[in-house]
């Protein structure tokens, strides 16, 4: 017969767990294994372990403080009474589902249920989660590496998605402009523009010119969209501009705050770029705007290149934090 480590009254006087043991979260034996055809210990079962652990502490308290040894057997092992109705109630599930979670703990050798006799409640013995400090540290490291790998995979997926989207947007990233469209716009509107517009750089407009069909951004002529028109309107304040832009393309609170800075410093943002801002990490984007302004950057594409670089740095800092904990 396998001898399991149960909670012992003398041991519990020295140390008690106050949370669900970390081993239940990190150790491979509690995770799914396809080769062994083993399912993972469910999160609810882990929660149930923590609940039963609290009940076990109460048994210790009764014995040590009150002198009540009702919940200590002849071997000094600690047991509790917690029937299926109580489990179902505390987990807010049906009795059948609650029994399933209890069965998980039994199958993972975390719990023993001992029948005492007819008419008597079954005893529950909670087994100690055996933890080797060095192994647990290795499991944590493996866990963090897995998280880092998944973050990188997700980052590559997002980058691929953004690149595919950018190919269809002439004024977004990496200089992938639709030259045919640009030339066509130039031919249609060139005669309507003052000759001085041909030599402008960055963003150039005036009250009389902005209603025309193109705007010059960093030396490149682009069609004036409704978004550009709102941002270029000198007759309304920034708050009104943001409200109008929000009606064209819904923005979350963070994107509105970012747009406020873009408008303040005269960096034009298209509808498609507003959509991109909705998916940006706010703190990283804010730092990127500040950097762009400090470096006298004039375009959204400049900002976005900065953002991508800082986003990679941010992910790296999260994944490479000190594991000595």
SSE diagram, text form:
Layout: H1 9-14, H2 23-26, H3 43-64, H4 84-91, H5 95-107, E1 111-114, E2 123-126, H6 133-166, H7 179-189, E3 203-204, E4 214-217, E5 220-223, H8 226-232, H9 238-248, H10 253-264, H11 271-278, H12 282-294, H13 300-319
Antiparallel strand pairs: 1-2, 3-4, 4-5
Descriptive notes:
The chain is 52% helix and 6% strand. It is mainly alpha-helical and 325 residues long. Among the domains are: 22-126, Arc Repressor Mutant, subunit A, CATH 1.10.10; 217-319, no CATH class. The strands form two sheets. Strands 3-4-5 form a three-stranded antiparallel β-sheet. A hairpin with an 8-residue loop joins β1 (111-114) and β2. α4 crosses α5 (95-107) and α12 (282-294) crosses α13. The longest helix has 34 residues, at 133-166.
